[in-house]
Amino acid sequence: VCITFTEFGKMQNICNFLIEKLDSSVVISQPQFYHTPSSVENLRRKACLVAVENARRKAQEVCNVVGQTLGKPLLIKEEETKEWEGQVDDLQSSRLSGSLTIQQKIKSATIHAASKVFITFEVKGKEKKRKNL
What's the domain count of the chain? Predict the structure, then answer.
């Protein structure tokens, strides 16, 4: 029987339950980790959105320093996106000996993403507050 889990915690709970109830009549293999194309695409999209948020925050800070007001974005361009699987210390030696722990397998299968964006914002003069008389 092959079962696909989307949450590691649920997988552990069910495996523990099966081992408890069925004892030695059940053999549970080590988990195999993989990422669906849609989950990788979601990760890329989130990385881009975070990069845009960071750029806007930095631009806002610069405007505050120079006494200007940040306007609307005039141009947003994603220049680079990359993703990579996480690495574990001594991963090579652990693989050679065949003794990767579950935590090491999770770390090595974890995908990270980065996005580099170029954004041009409109910059306005500091708006003066009006007083109602």
Answer: 2
